[in-house]
Tryptophanase (Shewanella surugensis), 456 residues
Amino acid sequence: MRTIIEPFRIKMTEPIKIISKEERIEKLKKAHYNVFLLDAIDCTIDLLTDSGTGAMSAQQWAAIMIGDESYAGSQSWKKFEATIKKITAIKHIFPTHQGRAAEGLLAMSRLKAGDMIPNNSHFDTTRANIEFAGATAVNLLCEEGRDPSIEAPFKGNMDIEKLTSFIQTHGAENIPFAMLTITNNTGGGQPVSLANIRAVKTVLSQYNIPLVLDACRFAENAYFISKREKGYQDKSLLEIAQEIFSLADAATMSLKKDGLANIGGFFICNNDEWAEDFKNLLILREGFPTYGGLAGRDLEAISVGLMEALDMDYQTYRHATVDYLTQKLDMKGIPVIKPSGGHAVFIDAKTFMPHIPPLAYPGIALINALYIEGGIRAVELGTVMFGHFDDKGKEQPSELELVRLAFPRRVYTQSHFDYIIEVVEKVWEERHTYSGLNITKQPQMLRHFSCHFENN
Ligand code: F0G
């Protein structure tokens, strides 16, 4: 059959509220034109994030009932540890309450002022945690990954030449570790090939620099490798994941993505000293190392979820939904990043809204239009999230102005996607009627979550 179906049926539903356009205009105004400040109930289709928003399976709910809530050494911890060891073969496993807690404790335990951390592209919380420790987060993404109009199979790859010269310029002694984000969320959810991971590892090994994976979407990355990288067609997603982790010295992960859970994270590493330092901070901040800020029932749901994320039928369906939306929008001439990423469709807002300059935030203009027209909530990955202020205090735009429609896992069905397509098309037809925005209030860090806008 040509039609790829959802490999599940629905046992429990959650109502969606559909409010009028006039009501949405009012709600957005009250939220200071920042969709993060809306009530979720006022969003018809919530594509703000794929993080913690997935639907759990019957097997996960069943596992929750056997959660062992013992403070130390629970059965649920044993299962969690065994599952992650099966996938990664990494020695020390630490649960955290979510990804950024793992990043924060890693940064706190390993970084000092003046250190430099390269990555293909840092996610915003990773960057913020590194910079909070006084270090500098640097993106060394390959050229094709930086151009939304280029089609290439592994646009998340690290630029190996840049990595080598980066190490030579800054000195290995100032680079306590390097990172690779799989898939590269902020660059369009694009995958990293195993060849690239191996090449990064080879360069780093020459300088004794450990490789830390940001593994939030490792199973989606494994799927891309199985489809696009020569030599991996006959391997299971688990085998590919095992090969990926065999090249890593450590990893952080938000289990709210490919853990198919609503909460959770981990830090894992092979180095005993790293583990000891991390463990001490974990106890101080998150909890005893066998629960790390999670309930036993969360550990159970995650253990099941991680293996479900490596199921080929599930990944085939998931990628088909992202592809479907990308292709339909592309056919209308709407500028989307191609090929489609693993967890989201990314619209190039710079091209979509060419009349709005970067410092008037074309991404936010597009996001607000999608909300007003159809109650769709999306997120900007552009100047509001990644812009910075130079030495003279002048705001500098981000390289890319992307709008991300992120897909919660196993939540929306075909008609929801058809509705999304209709809404995006309507905004596209009327794009010239939208104007840019000013920021009227902003915090010092991670401003996108809470800043206020006004239309200009
Ligand atoms: N790294 C990447 C690549 C991420 O995408 C995220 C979260 C994190 C780290 C942090 O994990 O949220 O569990 O603390 N991304 C979400 C998103 C929030 O919408 O892309 P967390």
